Structure formats: structure tokens, C-alpha cells
Write a sequence for this structure.
């Protein structure tokens, strides 16, 4: 028996897969389950593959219909690190402020694209000046478009590449984690190239199966941009179909995946590229761009060991939490069984941070008023953002708080989004509780310690700050998502939090009977597990090895099946564990 993984896995079926699942259930009720599977398993796999592995639409540039508000430097979740010796660029919101090609500018004007997103406001001017960059931001923030437009603008300038050696190799290489991502990046480039009538040739290698989708004529005739996975590009270079001697721009899309999955291939390509670059003139463009959604060890290794030594890139974060992981911001988490214990921990923390800027964040105005009252009873003067205050009053309160280092500030999530300008000067951020409504609010709270997340070389040393999380039983709804963040920041995790996450993940310890029968329509109140656990779902005292025969009952995805073990003894052992 094999069942789907937990909800956090990438193998969770979509709505379309659910429809396919119900169709299979209807077909299997007739008692012809085994006979049907034996003859049609390949057909089912190909049918699902054609539905689930079609290329998704490429990233687009959403045309803003109204004038966006100016970027408030204090409330922007944009964090930029300018290494020493690296070039700096100003934020640019309007496309007209960029000295791009008239053809490209006319195309964007016709598409009603006039303003940039937060990430694009810093990447567009930096990449236009051929600055190398590393960008980490969430989905929908415009990471792909951030490098597509500056890259195409550079490629249409033929004078920039007059010193390149003769050949048919690409001037830009885009590395992707797989053929799906490569197809999306290639289509994003093609859409702008065709729409703007730019004389730039795009070739996407590695579409579909291994070796498919590659036309030898594309490489013989030459191309300007080659989009491929690292492994496929290594093969093309070894076969002599293309080369890196003319490459001036290297882009890594989905960096956290590409650099982790294809670590050896990427290193081989970079070494080959640098060897070719040594033989060329140094006046040619030399740019590396890495974009991703998460800062992981692969991104850190590539940035610190390769990029910082040669390119000194701009490092941009569109998420304050990812910036906290990059900075390894001290996160001190503690679990408290009751409110009095939590209040005692709060008082201890505040008294240990005398003459420092302290902020206490909580969920509602009622809770903030309660905290303020408790602090007054303990003789601690504090400021609180009260209900009904307008923006002028809030600005005045924040200004007074910044001039009073020894006075804590208590603010609720109800007022957090309406603060006119959140100063990032706090030395200590205390989370009294965790947000219930929106996870983004938790990230917004980190604006108070933004100066500790951002490093600008000409401003001196980086500011230091601490983040305290006073966790209680009422915060258990966020433990599952909080635990990975604490571990990625290198923080200690209270044992109570780990135990509750494990209990929530494993349910009551037993598999759901309905799921074992191949049915996923269980009640949401069911507390039993709906996925397999490698530790709990192994027969006691018996190691599974050799060839295990099973019958395929149902196809969920091309790589995920419902099966029944043929070995009766082994099957009974699994059944007894339910």
C-alpha cells in the first residue's frame, strides 16, 4: 500500500487530479480493478502527464491601471545589501526614468506598463547598469520580469558586444531547474522579443524528454539567449553544439532549486565560462543574476564562494523573513504554559534591555491595552498605539518613542498596517503572540528591526537586534510554519513546540481507515493520519528488501500510485498497523 505524502509535500494532487481520482473510483467499483490496471497503466500515466505537465503560462507584466503609491522607504519590505566596493543604484518606479531602447520603451508603453513592482524598482536600474545581483522574493513579485527586460535592453545594443570573438555561441545563458521552468523563462523572453520586434533570437533547449526539443540548426545558425537546465547545457557544450566563449550574461532562475539540484553541473559551467573569459578582453559585459524564492545553503554557497569574490553582487530580499535567515538574526523562542509565566518573561526581557529601543507586538488592540496596563502596574512606563488615533497622532507617537530609548512601544496588528512610517531602529522585537488572520502580518512586524537586516557599506557597521517569541498554547496554529523558520535561523526550538508539531503531524498515531481504502473524502475533523510515516508505518522487526510485488489500484500522478501488496503475510502486517 502506498499513499500520498503529507500536505506539505509537493505531491499533493490538484483539483484536476481530484477529478481524475473520482473517475478512477467510479471505474473501479465494478470489480474489474485488477484487470483494468494490468492493461492500461501506461495509458493512465500518459493521460495524467498530458494534463498535469503542460507548460504553465509564462510570467507576465501586469499593467497597472492607477498610479501606484510612492515607495515608502520605512514601510517597504525591500531589503538590500550593497557589498563593499559594489556599485549602488537609486530606486526607479517609472519605466520612463530608465534609459532603455526606444523600441522596448514603446512596446512597454503600448502594453500599459509604466511602473515597477517593489523588487523591480531596484533590480531594473541595477541590472541595466550591468550590475550583478542576487534576488530572493516570493511568488508574484516579478522576479523573472526583473531580469528579462534589462537583459533584452542590453542585447539590442550591438556596440556593447563589438569586442566579442566570432562564433555562434549565445551572449546570454539562462539556467533553470528543469524543462518546465525553462519553458516558462523562454516564453517570457519570446513574448517581449516578438511583441517589441527585437532582433534577438531565443533558443530553449531540453523541452520535454531528454534530448527532445533541440534543433541542431538553432545552434549552427547561432542564438543570442540560450535557456536550458545546467545538465543539458553541459551535454551540449561537450557535444560541441554550443560554447560559452561569447557569454556575457549568466542568469540562474529558481536559484534555490537549480543550485541545489545541479550543483556539480553549475560549478562545471562557471569554471568553463571563467576560463573562456580570461582569454577575452575585460571590457566586455560580465554579469551574473540569481533569482529565487528561498535563501538556502545552495544559494549561500554560490553567493559567498563564487559571486562575492569576483562580481560583488547586489543582494536583494523582497521578504523580511528571508532577510532574517540570511542575516541569521537571533530568534529567541520560549514556551509558556500560562499568561502569568509569559508576563514574567516579558518583564524580565524589558528590564534586561534598558536604554534600548523595545517593541512589543500583539494581535489585537484589546491585548495591547492589557499589556500596557500590566506594565504600568509593574512600574514600567510604556507607549501604546490606541484605538481611534489618526496618522498624525501615530507619527507623533513614533517620533517621541524614537527619542525615548528606555520606553517600550506596544502596538497591535490592528494598527500595524496603518502606521504611516515604521522606523526600523528597534534593538529588541518581542512577539507577545502570533497572528491568527494573516501570516504576512508576522513578516510586517520585522519592519521594526529592518536596520538590523540591511547593510549599506557607507553607513558603517550593521545594527544588531534580537527577536523574542513568547509562545503559548494559543499559538499552536502557527507552530508548523514557525518551526522551519527557527531552524533556518539557527535558533533553539522549545521542546514543547517540537512535540506539538509532531503530534499535529502524526494525528492520533494511526492511519485513517478511509484513506487506506483509497478514499480521500474524509471529514476535516478526522484526527488520524492521511499520509505514510517512515518510522511508524514499517512492520516491527522486519526489514523490507528485495523485490516487492504489488498491484496498482489507482494512478494519482505519473509518479504516485495506490497499490496493494501481493505478499499476503506482508499485507496483513500492514493492515494490523491501521
Amino acid at each position: 500500500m502506498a499513499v500520498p505524502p503529507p500536505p506539505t509535500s509537493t505531491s499533493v494532487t490538484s483539483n484536476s487530479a481530484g477529478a481524475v481520482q473520482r473517475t478512477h473510483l467510479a471505474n473501479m467499483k465494478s470489480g474489474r480493478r485488477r484487470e483494468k490496471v494490468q492493461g492500461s497503466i501506461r495509458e493512465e500515466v500518459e493521460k495524467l502527464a498530458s494534463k498535469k505537465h503542460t507548460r504553465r503560462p509564462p510570467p507576465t507584466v501586469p499593467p497597472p491601471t492607477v498610479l501606484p503609491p510612492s515607495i515608502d522607504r520605512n514601510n517597504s519590505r525591500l531589503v538590500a545589501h550593497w557589498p563593499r566596493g559594489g556599485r549602488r543604484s537609486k530606486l526607479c518606479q517609472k519605466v520612463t526614468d530608465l534609459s532603455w531602447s526606444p523600441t522596448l520603451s514603446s512596446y512597454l508603453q503600448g502594453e500599459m506598463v509604466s511602473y515597477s513592482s517593489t523588487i523591480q524598482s531596484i533590480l531594473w536600474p541595477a541590472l541595466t547598469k550591468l550590475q550583478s545581483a542576487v534576488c530572493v522574493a516570493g511568488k508574484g513579485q516579478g522576479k523573472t520580469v526583473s531580469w528579462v527586460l534589462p537583459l533584452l535592453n542590453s542585447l539590442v545594443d550591438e556596440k556593447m558586444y563589438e569586442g566579442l570573438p566570432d562564433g555562434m555561441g549565445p551572449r546570454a545563458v539562462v539556467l533553470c531547474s528543469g524543462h518546465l521552468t525553462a519553458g516558462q523563462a523562454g516564453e517570457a523572453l519570446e513574448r517581449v522579443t516578438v511583441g517589441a520586434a527585437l532582433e534577438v533570437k531565443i533558443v530553449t533547449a531540453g523541452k520535454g524528454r531528454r534530448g527532445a526539443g533541440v534543433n541542431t540548426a538553432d545552434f549552427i545558425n547561432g542564438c543570442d539567449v540560450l535557456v536550458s537546465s545546467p545538465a543539458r547545457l553541459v551535454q551540449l557544450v561537450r557535444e560541441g553544439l554550443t560554447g560559452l566563449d561569447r557569454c556575457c550574461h549568466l542568469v540562474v532562475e529558481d536559484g534555490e532549486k537549480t543550485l541545489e539540484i545541479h550543483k556539480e553541473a553549475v560549478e562545471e559551467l562557471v569554471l568553463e565560462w571563467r576560463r573562456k573569459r580570461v582569454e577575452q578582453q575585460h571590457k566586455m559585459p560580465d554579469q551574473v543574476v540569481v533569482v529565487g524564492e528561498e535563501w538556502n545553503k545552495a544559494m549561500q554557497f554560490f553567493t559567498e564562494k563564487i559571486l562575492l569574490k569576483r562580481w560583488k553582487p547586489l543582494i536583494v530580499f523582497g521578504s523580511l523573513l528571508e532577510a532574517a535567515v540570511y542575516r541569521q538574526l537571533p530568534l529567541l523562542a520560549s514556551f509558556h504554559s500560562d499568561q502569568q509565566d509569559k508576563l514574567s518573561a516579558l518583564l524580565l526581557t524589558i528590564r534586561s534591555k534598558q536604554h534600548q529601543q523595545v517593541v512589543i507586538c500583539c494581535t489585537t488592540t484589546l491585548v495591547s491595552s492589557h499589556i500596557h496596563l500590566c506594565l504600568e502596574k509593574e512600574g514600567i512606563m510604556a507607549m501604546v498605539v490606541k484605538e481611534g488615533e489618526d496618522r498624525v497622532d501615530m507619527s507623533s507617537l513614533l517620533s517621541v518613542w524614537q527619542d525615548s530609548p528606555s520606553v517600550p512601544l506596544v502596538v497591535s496588528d490592528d494598527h500595524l498596517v496603518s502606521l504611516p512610517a515604521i522606523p526600523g531602529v528597534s534593538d529588541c522585537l518581542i512577539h507577545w503572540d502570533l497572528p491568527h488572520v494573516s501570516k504576512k502580518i508576522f513578516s510586517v512586524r520585522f519592519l521594526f528591526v529592518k536596520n538590523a537586516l540591511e547593510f549599506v557599506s557607507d553607513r558603517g557597521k550593521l545594527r544588531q537586534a534580537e527577536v523574542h517569541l513568547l509562545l503559548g498554547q494559543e499559538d499552536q496554529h502557527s507552530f508548523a510554519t514557525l518551526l522551519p523558520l527557527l531552524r533556518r535561523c539557527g535558533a533553539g526550538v522549545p521542546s514543547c513546540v517540537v512535540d506539538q508539531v509532531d503530534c499535529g503531524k502524526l494525528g492520533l498515531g494511526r492511519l485513517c481507515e478511509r484513506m487506506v481504502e483509497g478514499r480521500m473524502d474524509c471529514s476535516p475533523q478526522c484526527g488520524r493520519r492521511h499520509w505514510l510515516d517512515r518510522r511508524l508505518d514499517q512492520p516491527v522487526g522486519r526489514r523490507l528488501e528485495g523485490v516487492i510485488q504489488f498491484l496498482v489500484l489507482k494512478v494519482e500522478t505519473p509518479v504516485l500510485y495506490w497499490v496493494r501488496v501481493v505478499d499476503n503475510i506482508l499485507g496483513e502486517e500492514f493492515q494490523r498497523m491501521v
User: Anything to note?
Assistant: The longest strand covers residues 550-557. DSSP finds 22 helices and 17 strands in the chain. The two ends are 12 Å apart (CA to CA).
